[in-house]
């Protein structure tokens, strides 16, 4: 009977903490400062987006609270000192004093006019005056750019994430079946794949959009139907590779069923790839949504997204109004940059050989 | 080799059939009835019936599909619903501008991205590498729309360095006058991801054993990089470039729309706006066909540059 | 070779201290102040198991270690012709590499650049160091290829690396290395990846070149038995230290260090078959190793036959031409009987089909012909559902311990799974208890249950794989090159474990390997396979003592003899 053997070199002296794959990766990620900062930023955006979905913030984006194209307050600081403040105007009586040429008794409709004047106070709507400036300015209809940006980001993130989820689901299931079973199923799905990849992405997107119309639900489905191919190819290649690995063959030898091998054995081994893929898809779909909405095919007219806001930009710029575009650019660039840097960090953390 | 080509061409047929099926199902089944749109101002029951008969909409779905197949095989997609021009004329006139724009963009992109990627991969893990990678990431995070809008506004409108939009009849004039601004905007979008992508190829090659052998032979780092690694890394680079060629035909959709360039992309956007199905269908089928042909070419070129490849 | 003339020293390593940076631990101390001398015109064998530091030593000489992670102590010296190589940089270093000191590696396929022809790669070295013109270099390259014994050199010089076999690729690597008449040739495990017959040829080639050119050779290997025939000096390393160094005769006939003795003893021998193979720990004990007697092997007439294989065949389809298919016959008509409680060894080189036999019997491949009778029923003809019930009775252990355990499962999950699938144990607690007992049986501590595979060494992982099979209490165990990827000392431990289990549970083994000595040690009967066919079959002692077929004899001749005393004749 053999005695206990030597431990693997790195183990001697370390305390008994057993790290699985995810724990190891997480430790590696924590060491990457850029990735951690990006994680925080992305997390903040996600929190913002969720708040927006449930209308905790950004709910009142449609309210027209300022004059059209109100400038940002920090821009107008100096201007305010030189211009006199606008006067409040609750009744129209003062400025619209009528020119009197007849006495009330002579006036054929004198009685009605007197009655109307009495009731004027009752029916006049108390309007809060439209503001001259907002923290980051207003758009064409006087809506607050900040609130609109928050809501727009929320919509774009929503579309990006759920689109990515659907795409991932579709691509993974098809890729797993194709890679694992091979044969005729693989041939059929490959044919399907080649049909979809023969048509360039934008063309396919626009074709779908042409028949499907606008709206958030539609755009999510449309983007999933066009983007599944990348995930399919990745998952299929992984399943082809892992299907013949010894641990999967061993699972077969001990009697594990096909389903068990596909979901319990192989799938966990590609989960880190799926995470990276999910992030990539989210970023790509956010960008696509912007372009689609810009071209007029994305979210509906009653909804706002980063793309639809950008659609208003060219017209605004010509009139010298730039604040909405800057707000959108900052929001979107920050989100996508942070997400992309996070994706790089994830790749490095879970597959360190890939980038050496 | 010949057997391989024949087999691949035969494989293209079911794929093309699939594309046609997809296009048909999309537009004829889901697309709704276009006869109302086409009847326009002259909407009477009679004209409606006439139009439907003309378009073959009164026949069964499968009969319509056969008509579509015939159209594809004879390369005649009828006339555009919005402009009444023959579709083939439209496509024919628009390929040129698209190719001019995307072709020049591809060339400049390669000339910049590959040397830069090789240099960055050489200094990997150093400060230069980190900085360039982050810059590329930031550059690709700004939406194409922002680049275009800002570029058009500042560089063309405000500073007047480039024309705001437009196109002319002379290819030469186009190349030097109208192409630069859209090309610049396109490069801002594409250089970032391309540099990162090519960089990963170089880094992967640098991790291979033959690099160690080359160093053991006494070759300088420069020779190792420029002779041994580059030659191997070119394989995936060329493959990637070949695979992206079909996309040149569709043109840069967004660029063409903004800069009023009469290319294929612009045609698609207009057609989608106008629900002009013949154009969309035709362009989709043509592009699909071109993609398949280019993929085959890519595989053949791959065989030429990588001696390990066996075409089965 | 074995000349007794007083030599000058060509290369002298003094106090070489190398550490590697690690992610979140102390730097790993790879070499602990080692001292090594390489005389002129001699072959020095550097022997050690994995992790001993032998490769690190050789790479340090030419500064091929990864710069970012390597920390070399400034007091370390590698003296070559009066200079400290560790201080040499830039152009001077490059002149040294390939010209004065040349190196060949373990994997010739990946060490050659796949996109350049073989000739171009030799010419490159010649043009760089010997400053020849391209045409002169091409001529010289051809001469070199002839010298290294590459068949068909005029044609092969224009071939790409992937078009050559492993042995031919290694010859090309050797040609590149000797092209500029180096004074020192470093060979880092050059034959480990090659078949045993090819290995012999390459070793003879290196010995011949060494004698002809009077260069020194630093030969690195994990196999002590390999070096006895052609080394002048032997250096034994373990855990970054040199345990023993001396003349080859002294090391083999009179080893001083316990580890050296252990290394020599724990390889299975052809001449004897101890009850248990000695392991390192046996020699580290104060009393030293005491031999326990021999084991007799062979089939008896009254042995119960548990598995009867008749005419097993397996072909693969390869596409050819436009629509045609070619058949590759991996296994052609293999028949044998496996007796209960005994071991049948299948031995052959790569491509012989031995692994395919194993995989087909557990139905990981679909057999194209033949029967496998188990309790009278044909395992190959059953439906998958029927076969499921038999799966627990015939199990397989794979070669690669790093790939046979699911990286995301804990050891407990790995062991519990087969129990769950076959309804063994009524609940999780029972299964855990059984898993613990099995771990104990294979020599692993109970707390291994919560660990992940990557926390174990290769030998430990094979034990877990064995434990996994044992959970189902199988009757037949197929060992597909199960010890081939392990170090010699670890291999001995696992072989002893397998033998203990066979004695206790009356398991029947089908032991597949390319290593003839191991097969002879553990098998009662042996099957010799070549290109899918059975060449010879019989009791293991009989085959090894009196091989009938020429192929078997060639195989046996290729086994490294170890030290045989005196100057053996070169082939």
Describe the secondary-structure layout.
The complex is a heterotrimer of chains A (356), B (312) and C (571).
Chain A: H1 21-31, H2 33-53, E1 66-72, H3 73-82, H4 110-123, E2 131-134, H5 145-181, H6 183-197, H7 201-212, H8 216-243, H9 246-254, H10 258-295, H11 306-311, H12 313-318, H13 323-350
Parallel strand pairs in A: 1-2
Helix pairs in contact in A: 1-13, 2-5, 2-13, 5-6, 5-8, 5-10, 5-13, 7-8, 8-10, 9-10, 10-13
Chain B: H1 2-29, H2 35-39, H3 45-55, H4 61-74, H5 87-122, H6 127-141, H7 144-158, H8 171-178, H9 180-206, H10 209-216, H11 221-250, H12 253-258, H13 264-273, H14 277-305
Helix pairs in contact in B: 1-4, 1-14, 5-9, 5-11, 5-14, 6-9, 7-9, 9-11, 10-11, 11-14, 13-14
Chain C: E1 9-20, E2 28-39, E3 43-48, H1 54-61, E4 70-72, E5 77-80, E6 83-84, H2 90-96, E7 101-104, H3 108-111, H4 118-130, H5 134-147, H6 153-156, H7 166-178, E8 184-188, H8 196-213, E9 216-221, H9 224-227, E10 233-238, E11 241-247, H10 248-253, H11 258-265, H12 280-284, E12 305-320, E13 324-339, E14 343-347, H13 354-361, E15 369-374, E16 377-378, H14 384-391, E17 394-397, H15 411-421, H16 428-441, H17 458-470, E18 476-480, H18 488-505, E19 508-513, H19 516-522, E20 525-530, E21 533-539, H20 540-545, H21 550-558
Parallel strand pairs in C: 3-9, 3-10, 7-8, 8-9, 14-19, 14-20, 17-18, 18-19
Antiparallel strand pairs in C: 1-2, 1-4, 1-5, 5-6, 10-11, 12-13, 12-15, 15-16, 20-21
Helix pairs in contact in C: 4-5, 5-7, 7-8, 8-21, 15-16, 15-17, 16-17
């Amino acid at each position: 009977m053999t005695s206990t053997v030597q431990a693997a070199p790195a183990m001697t002296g370390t305390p008994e903490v057993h790290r699985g794959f995810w724990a190891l990766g997480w430790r590696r990620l924590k060491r990457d400062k850029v990735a951690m900062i990006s994680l925080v930023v992305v997390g903040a955006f996600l929190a913002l987006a969720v708040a927006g979905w449930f209308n905790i913030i950004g709910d009142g984006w449609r309210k027209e609270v300022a004059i059209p194209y109100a400038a940002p307050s920090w821009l107008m600081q100096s201007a305010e000192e030189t211009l006199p403040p606008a006067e409040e105007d609750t009744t129209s009586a003062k400025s619209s004093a009528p020119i009197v040429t007849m006495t009330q008794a002579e006036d054929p409709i004198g009685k009605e006019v007197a009655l109307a004047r009495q009731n004027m106070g009752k029916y006049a709507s108390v309007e809060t005056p439209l503001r001259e400036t907002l923290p980051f300015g207003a758009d064409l209809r006087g809506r607050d750019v900040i609130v609109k940006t928050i809501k727009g980001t929320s919509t774009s993130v929503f579309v990006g994430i759920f689109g990515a989820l659907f795409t991932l689901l579709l691509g993974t299931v098809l890729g797993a079946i194709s890679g694992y079973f091979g044969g005729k199923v693989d041939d059929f799905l490959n044919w399907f794949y080649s049909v979809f990849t023969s048509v360039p992405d934008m063309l396919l997107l626009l074709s779908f959009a042409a028949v499907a119309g606008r709206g958030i639900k539609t755009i999510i489905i449309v983007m999933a139907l066009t983007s599944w191919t990348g995930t399919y190819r990745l998952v299929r290649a992984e399943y082809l590779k892992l299907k013949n690995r010894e641990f999967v063959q061993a699972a077969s030898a001990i009697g594990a069923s096909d389903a068990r091998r596909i979901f319990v054995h192989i799938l966990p081994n590609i989960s880190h790839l799926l995470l990276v893929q999910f992030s990539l898809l989210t970023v790509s779909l956010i960008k696509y949504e912007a372009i689609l909405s810009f071209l007029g095919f994305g979210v509906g007219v009653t909804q706002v997204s980063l793309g639809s806001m950008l659609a208003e930009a060219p017209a605004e710029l010509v009139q010298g109004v730039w604040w909405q575009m800057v707000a959108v650019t900052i929001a979107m660039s920050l989100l996508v940059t942070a997400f992309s840097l996070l994706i790089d960090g994830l790749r490095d953390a879970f597959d360190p050989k890939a980038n050496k | 080799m010949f057997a391989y080509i024949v087999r691949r061409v035969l494989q293209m047929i079911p794929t093309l059939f699939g594309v046609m099926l997809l296009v048909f199902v999309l537009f004829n089944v889901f697309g709704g009835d276009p006869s109302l749109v086409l009847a326009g101002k002259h909407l009477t029951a009679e004209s409606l019936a006439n139009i439907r008969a003309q378009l073959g909409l009164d026949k069964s779905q499968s009969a319509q599909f056969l008509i579509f197949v015939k159209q594809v095989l004879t390369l005649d997609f009828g006339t555009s619903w919005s402009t009444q021009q023959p579709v083939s004329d439209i496509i024919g006139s628009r390929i040129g501008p698209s190719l001019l724009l995307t072709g020049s963009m591809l060339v400049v992109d390669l000339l910049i991205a590959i040397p830069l990627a090789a240099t960055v991969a050489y200094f990997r893990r150093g400060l230069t590498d980190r900085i360039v990678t982050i810059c590329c990431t930031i550059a690709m995070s700004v939406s194409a729309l922002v680049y275009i809008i800002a570029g058009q506004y500042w560089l063309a409108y405000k500073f007047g360095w480039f024309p705001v939009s437009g196109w002319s009849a002379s290819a030469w004039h186009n190349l030097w006058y109208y192409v630069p601004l859209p090309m610049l905007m396109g490069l801002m979008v594409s250089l970032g991801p391309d540099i990162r992508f090519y960089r990963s190829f170089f880094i992967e090659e640098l991790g291979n054993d033959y690099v160690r052998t080359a160093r053991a032979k006494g070759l300088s780092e420069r020779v190792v990089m420029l002779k041994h690694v580059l030659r191997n890394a070119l394989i995936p680079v060329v493959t990637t470039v070949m695979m992206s060629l079909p996309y040149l035909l569709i043109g840069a959709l967004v660029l063409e729309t903004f800069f009023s360039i009469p290319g294929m992309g612009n045609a698609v956007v207009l057609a989608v706006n106008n629900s002009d199905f013949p154009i969309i269908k035709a362009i989709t089928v043509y592009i699909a066909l071109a993609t398949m042909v280019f993929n085959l070419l890519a595989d053949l070129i791959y065989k030429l540059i990588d001696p390990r490849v066996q075409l089965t | 070779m074995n000349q007794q003339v007083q030599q000058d020293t060509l290369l002298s390593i003094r106090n070489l201290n190398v550490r590697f940076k690690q992610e979140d631990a102390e730097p790993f101390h790879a070499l602990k102040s080692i001292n090594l001398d390489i005389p002129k015109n001699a072959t020095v064998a550097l022997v050690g198991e994995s992790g001993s530091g032998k490769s690190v030593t050789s790479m340090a000489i030419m500064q091929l270690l990864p710069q970012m992670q390597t920390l070399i102590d400034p007091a370390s010296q590698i003296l070559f012709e009066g200079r400290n190589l560790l201080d040499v940089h830039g152009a001077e270093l490059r002149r040294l590499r390939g010209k004065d000191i040349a190196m060949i590696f373990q994997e010739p396929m990946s060490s050659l650049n796949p996109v350049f022809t073989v000739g171009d790669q030799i010419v490159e070295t010649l043009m760089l160091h010997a400053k020849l013109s391209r045409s002169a270099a091409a001529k010289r390259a051809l001469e070199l290829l002839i010298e290294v014994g590459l068949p068909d050199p005029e044609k092969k010089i224009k071939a790409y690396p992937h078009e050559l076999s492993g042995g031919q690729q290694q010859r090309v690597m050797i040609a590149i290395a000797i092209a500029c008449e180096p004074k020192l040739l470093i060979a880092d495990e050059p034959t480990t990846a090659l078949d045993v017959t090819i290995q012999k040829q390459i070793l003879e080639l290196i010995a011949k070149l060494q004698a002809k050119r009077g260069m020194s050779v630093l030969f690195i290997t994990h196999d002590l038995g390999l070096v006895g025939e052609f080394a002048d000096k032997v250096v034994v390393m373990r855990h970054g230290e040199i345990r023993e160094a001396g003349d080859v005769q002294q090391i083999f006939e009179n080893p001083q260090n316990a580890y050296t003795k252990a290394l020599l003893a724990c390889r299975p021998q052809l001449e004897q078959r101890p009850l248990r193979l000695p392991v390192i720990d046996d020699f580290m004990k104060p009393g030293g190793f005491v031999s326990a007697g021999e084991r007799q092997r062979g089939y008896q007439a009254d042995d119960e036959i548990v598995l009867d294989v008749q005419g097993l065949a397996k072909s693969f389809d390869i596409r050819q031409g436009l629509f045609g298919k070619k058949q590759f016959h991996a296994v052609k008509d293999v028949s044998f009987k496996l007796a209960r409680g005994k071991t049948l060894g299948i031995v052959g080189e790569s491509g012989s089909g031995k692994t395919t036999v194993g995989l087909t019997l557990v139905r990981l491949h679909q057999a194209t012909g033949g029967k496998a009778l188990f309790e009278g029923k044909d395992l190959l003809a059953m439906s998958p559902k029927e076969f499921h019930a038999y799966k627990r009775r015939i199990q397989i252990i794979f070669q690669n311990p790093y790939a046979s355990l699911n990286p995301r499962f804990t050891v407990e999950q790995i062991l519990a799974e087969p129990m769950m699938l076959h309804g063994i144990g009524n609940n999780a607690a029972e299964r855990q208890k059984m898993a613990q007992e099995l771990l104990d049986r294979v020599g692993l501590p109970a707390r291994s249950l919560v660990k992940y595979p990557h926390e174990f060494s290769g030998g430990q992982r094979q034990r877990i794989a064995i434990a996994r099979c044992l959970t189902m209490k199988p009757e037949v165990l197929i060992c597909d090159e199960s010890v081939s990827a392990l170090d010699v000392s670890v291999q001995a431990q696992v072989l002893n474990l397998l033998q203990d289990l066979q004695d206790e549970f009356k398991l029947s083994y089908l032991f597949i390997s390319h290593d003839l000595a191991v097969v002879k040690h553990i098998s009662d009967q042996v099957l010799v396979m070549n290109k899918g066919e059975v060449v010879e079959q019989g009791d293991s002692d009989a085959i090894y003592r009196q091989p009938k077929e020429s192929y078997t004899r060639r195989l046996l001749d290729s086994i490294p003899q170890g030290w045989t005393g005196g100057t053996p004749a070169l082939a």
